[in-house]
Design a protein that fits this description.
The protein is mainly beta. The protein folds into 3 domains: about 1-50, no CATH class; about 85-195, Immunoglobulins (Immunoglobulin-like, Sandwich), CATH 2.60.40.10; about 200-415, Jelly Rolls, CATH 2.60.120. It has helices at about 1-15, 25-50, 60-65, 280-285, and strands at about 85-90, 95, 100-110, 120-125, 140, 150-160, 165-175, 180-195, 200-205, 210-215, 215-220, 220-225, 230-235, 240-250, 260-270, 290-295, 305-310, 330, 335, 345-350, 355-360, 360-370, 380-385, 395, 405-415.
Length: about 425
């Protein structure tokens, strides 16, 4: 008891600066310390010895501070959550090529009071139940794993970069399945870059074709239009940027009879769209639609001028119909209206948020869709010389007698654009 009394006197005497009208804080501490020492002086001494500090530090344990042994004034353990986790370390990707694999490592410490087991539903989970680098979204403990409070566990799992360039987040957190998410999050933002394949197709159209003819005839000079509904269609890779160029001869104002002489079409052909594509609704309301039209004699105010139509709609299946989200459509026209039957080199190109039509190397019209926020990325890309509109609309046709030759397609392959919500 002498030891306890001396501590009390020491603490009281240290409060000579306390005011007369308020209890001395030191005296309150002393009283608590005295009571604590009387009830368990050995515990205080043991705590001091274990901590390697001055014996008077034992007073903190009795005062209600949870620092030493997490003990309160009533001797009970301070509350800790059942489920908590601290992130010790993580190795997550910062840059990957499209489709590349990465072995991720996340080390978590059990900072709660429950032991983590597979049977208990404890897992490492993809935040919000999805991750662009993982189809599973969960990393399981082994059957015999038991991660007790204070222990760590290393989760090792594969990640695969999506086939979509850009910055993608991957983030992981502990989950007790069907109960709660808890603890710190391991996260990284990874730059994904896709190596894009170049493509080239050359079809002279002399005596045959690499495409699919719907009418017309072939000879040494190329493919000759013999009926208003003739077409020649091709299946292409998904060219997110590219150009299609061809030569047309024997096209004059005399064989540009109808209002709309539509000599070129580019379109979405995925999601089960059958070829030869129908006009209405598959081509008329196509979600990735390009067309080159030359006005004929039935349009006297703009006869011979050329119109480029360009439309974008990332709505996904079925690839046509009213657009359910943001879309883009422009159809400017212009250019020299003279067509004298001589060889004309026509070129349609797209990429970088812009589409252009050129005649003999000179730009006739240009469409800028870079501010639309949309990209060119159909599920499957087809194009044709001639369009299906002439099969249903009397004012549309191919110019009979025109000869097409020296077709060249070039471009860069890329990913399909994600469908809008």
């Amino acid at each position: 008891m002498r030891y306890v009394v001396r501590i009390a006197l020491l603490l009281v005497s240290s409060c000579t600066a306390c005011s007369d009208d308020a209890p001395a804080e030191g005296a309150q501490d002393a009283g608590a310390t005295t009571g604590g020492a009387a009830a368990g002086g050995r515990e205080e001494a043991g705590a001091a010895a274990a901590g390697g500090s001055d014996p008077t530090a034992g007073g903190d344990a009795g005062s209600g501070d949870a620092a030493a042994g997490r003990a309160g004034t009533d001797g009970s353990a301070a509350a800790r959550p059942e489920d908590d986790a601290e992130l010790v370390s993580a190795e997550l990707p910062s840059a990957l090529a499209c489709g590349a694999s990465f072995e991720a490592t996340v080390v978590m410490r059990n900072a709660g009071t429950r032991t983590w087991t597979r049977a208990g539903g404890y897992k490492l989970g993809a935040v919000d139940d999805s991750d662009p680098f993982s189809a599973e979204g969960r990393v399981l403990l082994a059957e015999l794993d038991a991660v007790s409070p204070g222990a760590t566990h290393t989760f090792v799992f594969p990640l695969v970069a999506p086939d979509m360039p850009g910055e993608h987040a991957t983030d992981w957190r502990m989950v007790r399945e069907n109960v709660t998410w808890f603890g710190a999050t391991a996260a990284s933002s990874a730059a994904v870059a896709c190596a894009r394949e170049s493509f080239e197709l050359v079809d002279p159209l002399a005596n045959g074709t690499l495409g699919n003819a719907v009418g017309g005839s072939f000879g040494p000079a190329g493919w000759t239009v013999t009926a208003a509904t003739d077409r020649l269609w091709y299946a292409l890779p998904r060219l997110v940027e590219g150009s299609i160029e061809f030569t047309v001869t024997n096209m004059t104002i005399e064989n540009l009879l109808v209002a709309d002489n539509e000599i070129f079409a580019l379109y979405e052909a995925g999601h089960g769209i059958a070829e030869p594509i129908r006009y209405n609704p598959e081509y008329r309301e196509n979600h990735y639609k390009g067309m080159l039209r030359i006005y004929g004699q039935a349009e006297p105010e703009r006869v011979g001028q050329q119109k480029l139509i360009w439309g974008l709609c990332p709505a996904g299946a079925p690839g046509y119909g009213p657009c359910s989200c943001a879309s883009f459509l422009e159809e400017p026209f212009g250019g020299d209206g003279a067509w004298d039957g001589s060889a004309q080199r026509l070129r349609i190109e797209w990429g970088g948020g812009r589409s252009r039509y050129l005649r003999n190397g000179v730009e006739i019209v240009s469409i800028d869709w870079s501010q639309s926020g949309l990209e060119f990325g159909p599920s499957q890309l087809h194009f044709s010389l001639g369009t299906s509109r002439s099969t249903e609309v009397a004012t549309a046709a191919m110019p009979i007698g025109a000869v097409f030759s020296e077709l060249t397609v070039e471009g860069i392959e890329g990913p399909e654009v994600s469908a809008c919500p």
